[in-house]
Task: structure prediction
Amino acid sequence: MTKRMTAWQCIGCGRIEGAQPCIGVCEDRRTEFVYASDHDEVLAQLTLARRRTRDLAALVRQLAHTTPREGEWERTYRALQANARRALAMLARDEQPDLV
Result:
């Protein structure tokens, strides 16, 4: 994570200033910022999305690389189906809003 800096923001125009002494060579340039809370929220969503992708990719790899033994296709299919249901249940839990 990057280091956070505390700054002052005007409630009227939105100008942001940091508590930094000017050394006489300052030049204002247009730049963009996001609130740390917004950044944290997006980072949490990204972490969740990466975990979901990892879990679903594992399920797809299992499906792609599984070859049932002779006469065991139905048992293999049912096992893969059970794994898929568990993955779907985990996704559904992730989508539930936090009750505080």
User: Anything to note?
Assistant: The beta strands are 7-9, 16-18.
